[in-house]
Amino acid sequence: MNSQTLIRVIAAREFMARIRTRVFAITTVLTIIAIGGYILLQAYVLNKSTTTSLDVGFVGAAQSIAAPVRAEAAAAGETITIHAYTSLAAGTADLQSGTLDALVSGSGAHTTLTVQSAVDPTLQTALNDQARQQILTNYLTQHGLPPSDVLGQLAFSVSANVLSPVNAARVEQIVIGLLVAGILYVTMVIYGQLVAAAVIEEKSNRIVEILLATVRPWQLMLGKIAGIGLVALIQVVLIAGVALVLASATKLVSIPTLGVDVVISGVVWFVLGYLMYALLYAAVGSMVSRQEDVASVAMPVTLVLVAAWIIALTVAAPDPGSPATTVFSFIPLMSPVIMPVRIAAGVAPFWEVAISVVLVIATIACLAAIAGRIYRNSVLRVGGRVKLSDALGLAPSGKPAV
Fold it and tell me: Which residues of the chain are in CATH 3.40.190.10 domains?
């Protein structure tokens, strides 16, 4: 068989071995449940924070301002249910029993708001406005001035000139980009270490010696990376799909804000980022023979990913268009985490994205050659950890080993 067929066979075997495991099913379901629960919780909190309902009693003369107070509160996003009372004692009894949230009595300057524990600021503002207007109307009437003419002169609003307006859609896009970057970061760490662990597993149980009698080391490495990567891609698509449907259904995210380009770029950057880091994890995994050593040998690779995520949080998210963010997005090992934030925010021109993609592809090609060399020189060595110079096939003097 040719190389492509061999890699495809190895990838299919790795894919079927991983996709059928309980670990894949359990982690996928638990992740979907966790993300779904978080989205529903955020939707509930948002709904509670934006929609408030109060039961307010109005006693006697205070009933004349009940409708205007309700209208003003509704304009501020608060729903008021009016309860009319002829007796202050009856209204107070219902307030104490919990039937009412507030009780309004009196009129004009003598308007009184009675509550059980805390005053609702929107209700208090509406009452102040209506009581003030009631006093002004009575004063104008007493002095023979038509209230409608005078109040008509006061029906204006101050124009606002915002120097740095907050674009809600822009903020939502940045948050989406950060979520995409977070998913890619977590997935690359988990599945990259899984590649390293799979290499060590075959190396420790000596299966790799049998496999290398049929295939070349670089074919085995690429097939393993491709098979595990396909499993990772399916899991990411499932999780992201469920999250997108729930977020859209609960109005946390709008489809136009999300954008098709964000979805496509997320998939592209996952593929590129996974290939790049999987090569590194496969190379370092081949240098040890015990699963206990996978964390220590993979630590330098993981730290680069952690640094990229920290930069995405502290530099890219606050200002996606800053020069620092732009520079970091061109660094190949950081591009898969940082560039999605810039793309979601709409500050990354196509030519910058294209250059970043080309740089990452070039890096993948270089890493494939280096990782293949390390894998070939290390995967059959058991026992202690293989030195990097030996893994690269170099003698201590720096000359190729004989």
Answer: 51-152
Tokens representing 42? 């955020």
Residues 6+ away with beta carbon under 8 Å from 135: 108, 109
Query: Residue 383 is encoded by which pair of tokens?
Result: 């026992």
Q: How many helices (H) and strands (E) does the chain have?
A: 16, 4
CATH class belonging to 51-152: alpha beta
Distance CA 56, CA 395 (A): 86
Tokens (6 digits) for 200: 């060590």
313 contacts: CB under 8 Å, gap ≥ 6: 178
- Entry pTM: 0.67
Checking 88-91 for CB contacts under 8 A at 24+ apart, the result is 88/59, 88/60, 91/57, 91/59
Pairing relationship of beta strands 78-85 and 102-105 according to DSSP bridges: unpaired
CA-closest candidate to residue 352, choices 333, 332, 329: 329
Model confidence pLDDT, tens digit, residues 251-300: 665 555 555 667 788 888 989 999 999 999 988 888 887 877 778 888 88
Tens-place pLDDT, residues 33-44: 877 777 777 666
